[in-house]
Amino acid sequence: xxxxxxxxxxxxxxxxxxxxxxxxxxxxxxxxxxxxxxxxxxxxxxxxxxxxxxxxxxxxxxxxxxxxxxxxxxxxxxxxxxxxxxxxxxxxxxxxxxxxxxxxxxxxxxxxxxxxxxxxxxxxxxxxxxxxxxxxxxxxxxxxxxxxxxxxxxxxxxxxxxxxxxxxxxxxxxxxxxxxxxxxxxxxxxxxxxxxxxxxxxxxxxxxxxxxxxxxxxxxxxxxxxxxxxxxxxxxxxxxxxxxxxxxxxxxxxxxxxxxxxxxxxxxxxxxxxxxxxxxxxxxxxxxxxxxxxxxxxxxxxxxxxxxxxxxxxxxxxxxxxxxxxxxxxxxxxxxxxxxxxxxxxxxxxxxxxxxxxxxxxxxxxxxxxxx
Amino acid sequence: xxxxxxxxxxxxxxxxxxxxxxxxxxxxxxxxxxxxxxxxxxxxxxxxxxxxxxxxxxxxxxxxxxxxxxxxxxxxxxxxxxxxxxxxxxxxxxxxxxxxxxxxxxxxxxxxxxxxxxxxxxxxxxxxxxxxxxxxxxxxxxxxxxxxxxxxxxxxxxxxxxxxxxxxxxxxxxxxxxxxxxxxxxxxxxxxxxxxxxxxxxxxxxxxxxxxxxxxxxxxxxxxxxxxxxxxxxxxxxxxxxxxxxxxxxxxxxxxxxxxxxxxxxxxxxxxxxxxxxxxxxxxxxxxxxxxxxxxxxxxxxxxxxxxxxxxxxxxxxxxxxxxxxxxxxxxxxxxxxxxxxxxxxxxxxxxxxxxxxxxxxxxxxxxxxxxxxxxxxxxxxxxxxxxxxxxxxxxxxxxxxxxxxxxxxxxxxxxxxxxxxxxxxxxxxxxxxxxxxxxxxxxxxxxxxxxxxxxxxxxxxxxxxxxxxxxxxxxxxxxxxxxxxxxxxxxxxxxxxxxxxxxxxxxxxxxxxxxxxxxxxxxxxxxxxxxxxxxxxxxxxxxxxxxxxxxxxxxxxxxxxxxxxxxxxxxxxxxxxxxxxxxxxxxxxxxxxxxxxxxxxxxxxxxxxxxxxxxxxxxxxxxxxxxxxxxxxxxxxxxxxxxxxxxxxxxxxxxxxx
Lengths: 372, 659
Fold this sequence. Notes:
The complex is a heterodimer. By secondary structure, chain A is mainly α.
């Protein structure tokens, strides 16, 4: 899993020893670069590459932005790609990536080839292909995300997209562990842009008249996501889709809250990949519950909001974990293991829920039992 | 001074920024030819009719879709014909559900690719909880509206440098309503005794909470190292005036019972907070196989809380009315530090070692004074000033091995480890809430895609907690989930997610078992029709021993049991039977059953049903646009509390036009 920037610098070194006129050598080099079609290197080779990479890194290996094009002849430019892949190319041209990956950058970071690698070998082989086998062979001469593992593909994207702080934990993310990588959610060339009767409305979404926007517009305005949230997340998280349909819920289907308001799909150290610690994530909106209070409810301060609440949806009032709230309170507040409850038993029954009196249950600034 | 100004005039900051941006635009456009723009847009308008029968409060809680004219959708796009040529490549505005619906949103986006992006947003949510009061229900109600305003500017002056400015304003308006006893403050029990405890005051707090968040951030890339620095300031202000319902005087029994009429003349509490936060993070590809990452976050919260109240009590009519004044002041400071460090090491070509360590701590210091003054007493009565202290530390270590034998298979196994220390002190003495907890969790994850049409994902984890901080946290937790996605053909697809979790603390007879299975089948035979349908079964069961300190026997040996089963059925069907005709049907049916009770007592709640569906027929007219008629039906039934039942039909007539 050599990062592509270092790998490119190594490949450039290798290419200088090649005969540029030799297509077979170039194709072999490309196959090596593309990983899966390359023959397995012996361990010594791996060590050698690691050593070279280490030396390069320690010597201050040029960053992605600073690399110079050492084999410009291997690149054909996006217009050439567009001849055969017109549909994809036309869509790609609408993205900010196409505008940014332009002439001001080195040739290997321009247009389609910034992601798919040098295309000359592929273009030449495809143009000369006489049968299906040859065309399939030609298809292997360029980096195709469909043929590589999620980790390899992610490394390809992260070579550039690491400027954003959100992505720094991607190598340990749950999504990557589940074989999900960047192009499962994002695409640089969305082709299904028309209103599609094949995608029926989601239940509450239709009820709340959440607009079905033009897919292309949605794609361009939302970090090139294939679909808008939460539908995109629901393609895998079907169980959560059901939770957000329950009577008490965070308003995700209604278009008010997005999954990414709370979770970082690119990975985080927090449980459930929350954007911040449990407490801090909720405080983004529920500021008043955060305190600090003079008198803290220890369970909320130490265990966080999810000690008592379930965040997605529930049939219980206030998204509590129990329909009868006192059952939740009495899981802790029974002697001798935890804070005692100096009430008579019948007092509970007559008075109903504990929060009838303990109204400031999240914390109080003047009453240690959270009463008025 | 500046922060004070911007706190009071936060939008001034935003407008200044926009002006700066506008002023800078000529410079941005320097040497750039004037760009032409393509303009497009869409608007969807309509009227909703409502026919509601039953409990309005429950309807407002779950749907709150009222009758009236609405702008369901609006969008305007300006796209540069030649991106990169002018100072603006893309300008879009969208709005949805404007004119009285509970979740309106407006967003605007300005962008020049590779140079800047400005996003402005506004959204609001209404929350209603106003249900019939019973002897068992929570005596609390809310009618509140949260408004969120956001601004984010990303400016990228160089490829390896990005500057960000962000601003968020959260405002909460409305009413917090309750009926609660009012007798817990100094001298209170002496003045109104058990009378105050036995009788509840219906009160209301008008909500006027405001929170502002300003921040500046920088993302910088130096060779193979990325650096992220951010500084933000959050302020929070919550003035709370307690009063009677509908602005009436806050009285216990009213003037008709002068001998027992407890009157709260005024009750004002104020809370303010200032929370500056600084964060620094980095990640670096130091070697071809080794990535390091780390960071540090410092946050500080501080602010006072004040209370000023006057209560007049007739003391049962035997003495002249007594005026009791209560004043309180508290201050709380919380400093938190978070440090983290981790690495990803590509040990072999198909084996990665990923490890992260984080240490979080906070120290909270609070002090409070509370005085009660009564004319017939020579000096104020004070509750002794209290000093409260929290010290907390959490070590988190997570190490995983990721093995990728082929592109189709990924195995990941690791261990998560927590060590948590909490110390609580009152006036310098260690108090309850002090303890140390250890937690370790082995985790296994598998992702397998043997066929292009089949993918399987699974996870397994087993958490052991030594000395849980609260009884809510079980000592043992065993859980697993399996997700299967299979496409039978280009038209048929099946998704299934199954999970279970068993949690228990044996010594407390505390057990929780949950099971969940979700199946969705979708059928998309051709471009003119699409269907999906799904069913989710979610079962929850818990048991817990309960013992009370006092009261009628038996005082021990009770069990608290709780069982809830949610069944969710949902479907969607879209058909294009003719070129300009569209049918769109979707809906859901929820049936929840279960019982929750203590030994020998009947359950407080029972089954409930909530159904909601939408049927829409639309026709595309060549010039007019799309006209649609929709019927939405929903009803809610609770078997044991019929007073919250409702049934509602809404009819929507709307027109959508693109231009």
